[in-house]
Design goal:
Length: 445
């Protein structure tokens, strides 16, 4: 069958199922769940994939699921991903209990991924493709709540903090050749899509200052003040900012999770969470060394102790040019989006664990603009359901057809021209080498 006929069949099928797809997105929006606790979102993904007659592997990394089609085909395997987790932003008008809210638009990703599955499977188009396809609902993209992830690690429920890291570690990408995912971007200057987004990698840090408690009024000289250490550390970190090179887009940020127990007691324990980001691994490791020196110096000055736990967060995103150009031409030729409404390249300071995959295999990660307001803020609101839920599903399905049609000519071409930065084995070693705990103890006894 002609490729354009296949594409039309798939588009028609997605249109026929529009209501179902939009309802998936809305349901997940109304039931936001934080990392590694995305039970309801996983359930609706399982149900949708099972309704298509597919066999579903459940709870692949605490939560999440996966269904494969065309396992008997010879060609390459493409994974279509949708992220499950919400964020915490209590000031958002739609925030649910505990502040959970989808202000990164992952609900649209899930609708898009499942919509893509509906389009390809229900139309029967997948049978005409010469490659395998995995549909994956993946947990825990947002690098938040380090304490909770450490709890999961301590209880051997996960090995790595990020959902895709964990799935790479568990072997779920061993047989995958390339991957596809999008984020729901914010409309700026009437643009409808960013094709290539560059992002930062980051190291996630858990920091504990240990001192000694004493009566703040009666005998403060007997205490070792952990809050003073944190205060000095923050000043040290801020003093480092102009040592970072602009082209590395280094970002350092922190919060104090626990600042003391009572105001009239010298705090003996203060905990912080921090991130060090950069657009390349070298700059990230370098900035992190400086950051750790800033923490160490604070403990030294006060004669206390600091424990630093470093976790490699995510790596920078490098998407594949050939796959990007296929995606772009589908937007223009089938989805009524004009060339001038597309941004080819955007450099951002955020991070995504799609970056990790992109260092291992060819990937795309476009931004479909269907929201307003900045990511991760109270203003982020989905305003264009057609774009976020439907066009995203269509664009991914069409690109997948391009990759796997005609003996997967395009897909093989992508693979032949791709040079990975890391093999999976090298990548896992990099994580292992840089997930380190440092302790600096300057307490006299
Ligand atoms: Zn996100
Ligand atoms: Zn996000």
């Amino acid at each position: 069958m002609d490729i354009n006929q296949l594409k039309k069949m798939c588009l028609d099928e997605i249109d026929k199922n529009k209501e179902t797809i939009i309802n998936i997105g809305k349901y997940i929006y109304n039931n936001p769940e934080l990392s590694y606790r995305e039970f309801k979102a996983t359930d609706i993904a399982i149900k949708t994939l099972k309704d298509l007659g597919l066999k579903v592997e459940e709870n692949i990394a605490v939560t999440g699921c996966k269904a494969s089609i065309n396992e008997d085909k010879q060609g390459p395997k493409v994974a279509i991903l949708g992220e499950l987790d919400a964020l915490s932003c209590p000031e958002h008008k739609d925030a649910k209990e505990g502040g959970a809210i989808h202000c990164c638009g992952h609900n649209a990703q899930m609708a898009g991924m499942l919509g893509c599955a509906i389009g390809l499977v229900k139309s029967g188009v997948f049978k005409y493709l010469d490659g395998k396809i995995d549909f994956m609902a993946v947990p825990a993209e947002e690098g938040i709540e380090l304490e909770y992830r450490k709890y999961l690690q301590d209880n051997k429920m996960i090995t790595y903090v990020g959902g895709k890291q964990e799935l790479i570690h568990k072997g779920y990408f061993d047989d995958v050749d390339m991957a596809m995912m999008f984020h729901l971007g914010s409309i700026k200057e009437n643009k409808k899509c960013i094709i290539k987004g560059k992002s930062n990698g980051f190291i996630e840090k858990g920091i504990t200052f240990i001192g000694k408690s004493a009566h703040s009024g009666g005998a403060p000289h007997l205490g070792i003040n952990a809050a003073t250490m944190a205060n000095l550390a923050i000043n040290n970190i801020n003093a480092l900012r102009d040592t970072f090179k602009d082209e590395d887009t280094v970002r350092v940020h922190y919060i104090i999770n626990h600042g003391g127990d009572a105001v009239n007691v010298v705090p003996n324990k203060v905990t912080m969470e921090a991130m060090v980001r950069a657009n390349n691994a070298k700059a990230m490791i370098d900035a992190n060394k400086k950051f750790n020196r800033a923490l160490q110096a604070a403990a030294l000055a006060i004669g206390g102790k600091v424990i630093i736990e470093d976790f490699i967060g995510y790596l920078s995103l490098e998407t594949d040019d050939k796959m990007n150009s296929l995606f772009k031409s589908n937007l223009i030729n089938f989805l009524n989006i004009k060339e001038e409404e597309i941004i080819d390249l955007n450099k951002g300071g955020g991070s995504t664990d799609m970056g990790d995959l992109s260092q291992i295999m060819p990937c795309i990660h476009p931004y479909m603009m269907g929201a307003t307001g900045d990511f991760h803020t109270k203003d982020y609101t989905m305003v264009d359901e057609e774009m976020g839920y439907i066009n995203s599903a269509k664009a991914m399905a069409l690109t997948l057809i391009d990759l796997l049609y005609d003996n997967a000519k395009n897909g093989k071409d992508v693979l032949n021209n791709f040079k990975p930065k890391y093999t999976i084995k090298q990548y896992l070693k990099f994580l292992e080498d840089n997930n380190i705990m440092h302790t600096y103890n300057y307490m006299e006894n």
